[in-house]
Amino acid sequence: MKQRDEYIVECKVHNPRPVNLICDATFYGKRKDKLGTLVFKDNESKEILIWKHIESELVKDYKYLKDELLDRGYTIQSVTLDGKRGLYKAFKDIPI
Predict the structure, then answer these.
(1) Cross-strand partners of 7
(2) What is the pLDDT of residues 29-46, one digit of tens each?
(3) How many CB atoms lie within 10 A of CB 69?
(4) Sign of the torsion formed by the C-alpha atoms of 56, 59, 62 and 64
(5) pTM (2 decimals)?
(6) Among 92, 87, 22, which residue's Cα sits nearest to residue 57?
(7) Burial (0-12, 13-18, 19+ Cβ within 10 Å), 85
(8) Could you tell me which residues are beta bridge partners of residue 66?
(9) End-to-end alpha-carbon separation of the chain, Å?
(10) Residue 62: pLDDT above 80?
(11) Order of strands, edge to edge, in the sheet holding 35-42?
């Protein structure tokens, strides 16, 4: 966690466009550590568009990142999620 907190991330330069998203979370260490990263990636360019450090995989985090992308001018054409129950709710207002 110390290394994560000390890491300096460069500002992302966004190029808003229509995207086909792949969304997933990955967790590090032991379950009790509750340290993970939620990533939204463009399927075509393989570019990581946006991410967020999380403690658990919640719909609100997916919704937050989706809203951030839309606010930055991206158009979401499709979304690929894992089978975690209920995650589709974060994208139900997107006309896909």
Answers:
(1) none
(2) 877 778 999 999 999 999
(3) 19
(4) negative
(5) 0.82
(6) 87
(7) exposed
(8) none
(9) 37
(10) yes
(11) 48-54, 35-42, 18-28, 75-80
